[in-house]
Specification:
Largest sheet: 7 strands, antiparallel
Structural class: alpha+beta
Shape: globular
Radius of gyration: 25 Å
Organism: Oceanicola granulosus (strain ATCC BAA-861 / DSM 15982 / KCTC 12143 / HTCC2516)
GO molecular function: 5-oxoprolinase (ATP-hydrolyzing) activity
Protein name: N-methylhydantoinase
Strand content: 15-25%
Distance between the termini: 52 Å
InterPro entries: Hydantoinase_B, Oxoprolinase-like
Number of strands: 22
């Protein structure tokens, strides 16, 4: 907090310093982009930060991804805890500990203390996702892991540079426990150089404005954000809002979704997020430690305050309560590498609650991030035989109040991510992309439809001893609509082995699956959920979606009740049958409550007979099945129907 006995900075100096701190972090990012070794970091799976001498966050960059920035102050404070009193200029420390406020083991942070002579001014921190940290599978995402010992190398605070000298022994030990040690060493130097960039910029500001002014600026930018957030919260009505979202399953506990319950209370100028009643930790990596849960809360709430900078001032108004031992408060040694699955559920739940408070910013559920990881021997590249393929795809965000959702956008956990270029992946990995396009009918129908997802199909080329893992969710807790909008579609991956004619559905979560040269793997990403009753969507907008190939003629009729006729597809000429549309919409209005409450086993039988598809099952009948066998998932369906009744059915006129 600012020392109240001293005069505040003049407005011009304050504004210059505030923006200079942010620019310094942006320059760290530019340094990493130009010096990193890992393809995953090059695609912006990284974040940087500037901290004061106590470890509090002073500034983040303009493209730093949300999932990281709410945790950087925790890991900085843990470094201080371990090395306080021993730090010297030129030191750089590493940490990736999720139980000390980090995210997961793959996110490795390098922290540099910044000194002016013998005075500690603060810290710069660079966080990058290393594509492999050891563990039982390539990429370090083993969904069957129950504890951290099968996940990755846990790095508690350790010195990597001592007064500017590289600690080869420590760095070598860490790198030797990964599947790509050369890249790890390269990324260490890249991140260390990024922290040096911020140090250089802070000392430049000290030379220009003086040490005391810079330190005061670090305090005042936090106070400024705190003051602004408190003022805005105070202007809102006191009250309590609550909701629930789900993780698909606990692989070791049978069928049934895993609830994450959140109750948000505004009282005066503070906000409490209460996770009481959330499910205990599960026998998978889909658990979140407290630091990541805090970050999810911050990321979700910050979405509704886009104009404010983000630093520790924002955090001061937030309180979080969570029962011990739940999926949102996992402790050592519970597995947490897949924390992103509860993370995005928390974000979307917070979107839903804040949409009630700020309806002008209201938004439906966004698609779920997915990771595809494969590793093995690259027969094309004898000089670097081990490959580590690590890829994510964009998808659709939820429909908004008065506007369709964003199409083909990176996940809400980190919009600073890039959509990985096919050419880059093909150069560094034995893969070839045969299809990558916007996925028709992936968007959740609504008065304002969700954004569209994508379909990507790839082939594994010359390789040996390769295995694949897929880390995703929302195969069962399907992306939901709000205010009467409809869900999107189930996530999942299919594979067609070399020499086989039919593809095999593997679903949304598996690890260590053997693959070989010639195998073709295809995965869609869901669109966003719909906002508002799809029967209220302007038929002309539906026709435009058909022209754009976002919606098929068949689903225009089934989801929107709009009858579109093809005149000349090559010329994009389609027309609406107005009379038939009015009749069909009336029929759907008369029947849809019955569809939504039809006995689930009858729906499952229709699916098994091929009379309906997965989109019909989730959008019309609110039934969740094993999408391969057609087996009814009774408990999951009951949970999904409860959500469907609240978010969709209750808003139909």
């Amino acid at each position: 907090m600012t020392d109240m006995t001293r005069d505040p900075l003049d407005p011009v100096t304050f504004e210059v310093l505030k923006n200079s701190f942010i620019t310094a972090v942006d320059q760290m990012s530019e340094q990493m982009l130009r010096t990193c070794y890992s393809f995953v970091i090059y695609n912006r799976d990284f974040s940087n930060g500037l901290h004061d001498a106590q470890g509090n966050s002073v500034a983040q960059g303009n493209q730093d991804i949300a999932v990281h920035v709410g945790t950087l102050h925790f890991t900085c404070k843990d470094v201080i805890r371990v090395f306080e009193g021993e730090m010297m200029p030129g030191d750089v420390y590493a940490i990736n500990d999720p139980y000390a406020g980090g995210t997961h083991f793959s996110d490795v942070r390098l922290v540099r203390p910044i000194f002016d002579d013998d005075k500690l001014l603060g810290f710069s921190q660079s966080n990058g996702h290393w594509s492999d940290l050891g563990g039982s599978v390539p990429g370090s995402f083993d969904v069957s892991a129950r504890d951290m010992f099968r996940e990755a190398v846990r790095i508690t605070p350790v010195r990597l540079f001592r007064e500017g000298e590289f600690c080869h022994d420590v760095a070598g030990m860490i790198a030797a426990n990964t599947r790509d040690p050369a890249s790890i060493i390269g990324d260490i130097h890249s991140q260390a150089s990024a922290t040096h960039v911020a140090e250089r910029e802070v000392l430049r500001l000290v030379a220009k404005y003086g040490r005391d002014a810079v330190l005061q600026g670090m305090d005042e930018v936090q106070d400024y954000v705190e003051r602004a957030v408190r003022q805005r919260i105070s202007a809102l009505p006191d009250g309590t809002w609550e909701t629930v979202d789900y993780i698909d399953r606990d692989p070791g506990a049978g069928e049934g979704m895993i609830p994450i319950r959140i109750k948000m209370t505004i009282k005066g100028d503070r906000i409490l997020y209460d996770f009481s009643g959330s499910h205990p930790t599960i026998s998978s990596i889909y658990n979140s430690a407290e630091g990541a849960t805090f970050s999810a809360v911050v990321a979700g709430m910050k979405t509704f305050f886009p104009d404010l900078p983000l630093n520790s001032g924002f955090y001061r108004v937030i309180d979080i309560e969570a029962d011990e031992g739940t999926v949102v408060s996992a402790e050592w040694p519970i597995a947490v590498t897949g924390f992103l699955m509860p993370f995005e559920k928390i974000m979307n739940a917070i979107f839903e609650m804040w949409s009630k408070i700020m309806p002008e910013r209201a938004i439906a559920c966004a698609f779920n991030l997915e990771y595809l990881l494969a590793g093995g021997t690259d027969l094309r590249s004898p000089e670097k035989p081990m490959f580590m393929f690590y890829e994510w795809l964009p998808g659709g965000w939820g429909g908004r109040n008065g506007k369709d959702g964003s199409d083909v956008t990176t996940a809400c956990f980190g919009t600073g991510l890039m959509s990985q270029p096919n050419e880059g992946n093909e150069r560094v990995n034995p893969t070839r992309t045969s299809e990558f396009q916007i996925l028709r009918d992936s968007a959740g129908p609504g008065k304002w439809r969700g954004g569209c997802g994508v379909q990507k199909t790839s082939v594994l080329l010359e390789s040996e001893n390769a295995v694949m893992s897929y880390i995703c969710d929302r195969e069962r807790a399907v992306v939901w609509g709000v205010e009467g909008g409809l869900p999107s579609m189930p996530h999942g991956l299919s594979i067609r082995h070399e020499g086989e004619s039919e593809a095999k559905w593997l679903g949304s979560v598996f690890s260590d699956y053997p693959v070989q040269t010639g195998d073709e793997f295809a995965r869609p990403t869901a669109g966003g959920g719909g906002f508002g009753d799809p029967l209220e969507r302007d038929p002309e907008q539906v026709r435009e979606d058909v022209i754009d190939d976002y919606v098929s003629i068949e689903r225009a009729a089934r989801d929107y009740g709009v009858v579109v006729r093809e005149i000349d597809a090559d010329l994009c000429e389609y027309e609406i049958d107005r009379d038939a549309t009015d009749k069909l919409r009336a029929e759907i209005r008369a029947e849809r409550l019955n569809w939504a409450r039809m006995p689930p086993e009858e729906v499952a039988e229709l699916y098994r007979k091929g009379e309906i598809d997965a989109l019909d099952a989730v959008r019309r009948y609110a039934v969740i099945l094993d999408w391969d066998s057609g087996e009814l998932l009774e408990k999951t369906t009951a949970q999904f129907r409860e959500s469907f009744e609240t978010r969709s059915v209750a808003h139909w006129s």
